Amino acid sequence: MKKMILALLLLGVAVGGYLYYRKVSTGPEYSLLQAAKAVNDHDPAAFERYVDVGSVTSSLVDDVTEQGSVLGMLNPGGIAVKGALRLLKPQLAKAARQEVQRYVETGSVEAAASVPKPIGNVSLLGLAGKVVSPESKFKGIKYSNQTDEEALVGLEFTQPRFDTTLVLEVKMLNKGDYWQATQITNTADILKHVARLEKQRLLGR
Asked: What pLDDT shows up at residue 71?
């Protein structure tokens, strides 16, 4: 009887361990770690498995073109080119996707920045550098709200330039045995917040 109980306990531990491993290894957080690994490995195919680059960059371009206060960060004539940016959304989204792909392939911001721009020097990586600078560090996952079909994961980064932290909220969709990032949902709020911080910094507040 004791042997039977011990065997059942061991079986329970083994099953519980397997289920926990399945939950962790197929969860949204694990998929984000795999996306980060793909960047380090310069593996575009693996990166695009976990990040829908077209969807993410397209939504980013939509948010940027609606934020007039941020355009000055991207282009000296920011406000003047706002209308042009709206007209050139498809070309901007294509260029943004190429920037991301080039960066994943090479690990070089300079190489990514060399991608031809459809207007001026408007760059997705240039904008990203305002939000998460080279000096920024990933602090961890702030939160993860998950349903069967989608998840919202908050990624917290330090921003030494403003002596604060910023949380990027990533929307992810369940693809069965992995999750895929499709959008940064709080881009507009982050951009407005960074613009306010930059203005305060320039005014010496």
From this structure: 60
Q: What is the pTM of this model?
A: 0.78
| Lowest-confidence region among 77-81, 90-94, 112-116, 171-175 | 77-81
Q: Which residue, among 120, 128, 68, has the nearest Cα to 92 in the 3D structure? A: 120
Q: What is the mean pLDDT of the chain?
A: 76
State the Cα angle at 198 between 69 and 194, rounded to 5°: 65
Query: pLDDT tens, 24-47?
Result: 456 899 999 899 989 899 999 999
| Angle subtended at Cα 9 by Cα 3 and Cα 12, rounded to the nearest 5 degrees | 140
Q: What is the dihedral of CA 57, 93, 129, 189, to 10 degrees?
A: -60
In whole angstroms, give the CA distance from residue 82 to residue 64. Answer: 10
List Cα–Cα distances, 68 to 77, 137, 163, in angstroms: 11, 28, 25
Greater pLDDT, 62 or 157: 157
- Name the nearest CA neighbour of 25 among 147, 184, 179, 150: 179
How far CA 16 is from CA of 8, 23, 27, 58, 114, in Å, comes to 12, 10, 16, 41, 50
Q: What is the pLDDT of residue 20?
A: 35
Of 187, 131, 128, 186, residue with least CA distance to 164: 131
Question: At residue 40, what is the residue type?
Answer: N
